[in-house]
């Protein structure tokens, strides 16, 4: 088990959350796959190991991880929520053909936030940036 998964499990335990085998498996899958899976994809990946686990169990645990600040829900045009266990500041580039999502880092966009505040009077609380294109696999086809 990665130290990142172990640290996350310890954080949950500290808040009084019981670590069930399913909870551990869902969190580990999310943190190790980093491919922004849907709840159904998580369920299908773990179902052979946990045949009694339901899709509802996956959703309930994802909701709990989101409330704990350990997972972000990503909603894009295809109406299926995807889940990201990377909660650091980063952005996404999305393939318009296959829907693949990849993370990328970029220096702070504080200038953009500041300009938005100055021109609108808003207090910016969050920023989400998405770039769209064609991934390398789809380009080759």
Automatic annotation (TrEMBL):
UniProt remark on cofactor binding: Binds 1 zinc ion per subunit.
SUPFAM superfamilies the record matches: Winged helix' DNA-binding domain
InterPro entries, A to Z: FUR, Fur_C, WH-like_DNA-bd_sf, WH_DNA-bd_sf
Required cofactor names: Zn(2+)
GO CC terms: cytoplasm
Main location: cytoplasm
Swiss-Prot/TrEMBL keywords: Cytoplasm, DNA-binding, Manganese, Metal-binding, Repressor, Transcription, Transcription regulation, Zinc
Binding locations of Zn(2+): 95, 98, 135, 138
Swiss-Prot/TrEMBL GO biological process terms: negative regulation of DNA-templated transcription; regulation of secondary metabolite biosynthetic process
Transmembrane stretches, start-end: none
Family named by the database record: Belongs to the Fur family.
Protein known as: Transcriptional repressor
Organism: Paenibacillus rhizosphaerae
């Amino acid at each position: 088990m990665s130290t990142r998964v172990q640290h996350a499990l310890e954080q949950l335990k500290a808040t009084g959350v019981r670590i069930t085998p399913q909870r551990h498996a869902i969190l580990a899958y999310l943190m190790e796959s980093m491919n922004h899976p849907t709840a159904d994809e998580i369920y299908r990946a773990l179902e052979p190991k946990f045949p009694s686990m339901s899709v509802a169990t996956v959703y309930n645990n994802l909701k709990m991880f989101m409330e704990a600040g350990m997972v972000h829900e990503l909603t894009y045009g295809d109406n299926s929520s995807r889940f990201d266990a990377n909660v650091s500041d980063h952005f996404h580039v999305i393939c318009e053909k296959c829907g693949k999502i990849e993370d990328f880092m970029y220096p702070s966009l504080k200038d953009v936030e500041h300009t938005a505040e100055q021109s609108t009077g808003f207090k910016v609380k969050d920023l989400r940036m998405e770039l769209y294109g064609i991934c390398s696999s789809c380009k080759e086809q």
